[in-house]
Amino acid sequence: MITSIEKTSDYLTTEELRRISRYFHKEGNYRMSLLIDFGFRTLLRYSDLERIKWIDILNKEELLLNEKKTNKRRKIALGVVLRGIISNDYELYGKPDLNEEVFRYTLRHTNRLLQIGATSVGIRKKNISTHSLRKSGARFIWDLNNKSDESLIKLSMVLNHSSTSITRRYLGITKE
């Protein structure tokens, strides 16, 4: 009997994310650096990230989109730090056409690049993918809010989970 082993993405610490982001920035791959910051700060799935164009985020305070998986309309605040990163990376990338997608890699290629970046900065024992960015951002918010039930409820709503028990499992906090 063949059984499938479910591989789930691991979350990364903010320091691990910072190291991977710096690695790509130093390599001149500003889009991957921006993807890490953007995915972590917005909690979006890659299916939504890959549809974002420069015109949607450059010099904007919020991003409006319909989530691909849930078809729910979302308004996402783009904080001051993220807006600065977007503006800086847009300049570094040579001011591409505003109607161009920001993150132009396939999901498979993006996941491979994330794994290469992680290995290059010494992160070897984690299963890393684009979903790690979403999980890491959610885990950061939960930690930042003293692991409160209130923050868990809010995260459950933002992540579009049907219950906080799903959010607990998603964040890897079922035992905590």
Quick tags:
2 strands, 9 helices, 176 residues, mainly alpha
What would you report as the Rg, rounded to the nearest angstrom? 16 Å
N-end to C-end Cα span: 34 Å
How many individual helices? 9
Query: Order of helices and strands, N to C?
Result: HHHHEEHHHHH
Mean pLDDT: 91
Q: Percent helix among the residues?
A: 40-55%
Characterize the overall form. Answer: globular
Give the strand order of the largest sheet, numbering strands 1, 2, ... along the chain: 1-2
The proportion of strand residues reads 5-15%
Main pleated-sheet profile: 2 strands, antiparallel
Low-confidence stretches are 1-5
Tally of DSSP β-strands: 2
Give the oligomer, counting copies of the same chain as homo and different chains as hetero: single chain
Main structural class: mainly alpha
Would you write up a description of this structure?
With 176 residues, the protein is mainly alpha-helical. 53% of the residues lie in helices and 6% in strands. The chain has nine helices and two strands. The chain has helices at residues 14-26, 30-42, 46-49, 54-57, 80-92, 107-120, 130-144, 149-158, 164-171; strands spanning 62-66, 73-77. The protein has a two-stranded antiparallel ribbon. Strand 1 and strand 2 form a beta hairpin. Helix 1 (14-26) runs antiparallel to helix 2 (30-42) and helix 2 packs across helix 7 (130-144). The longest helix is centred in the C-terminal third of the chain and has 15 residues, at 130-144. The radius of gyration is 16 Å and the shape is globular. 30% of the residues are buried.
Annotate the secondary structure layout:
Elements: H1 14-26, H2 30-42, H3 46-49, H4 54-57, E1 62-66, E2 73-77, H5 80-92, H6 107-120, H7 130-144, H8 149-158, H9 164-171
Antiparallel strand pairs: 1-2
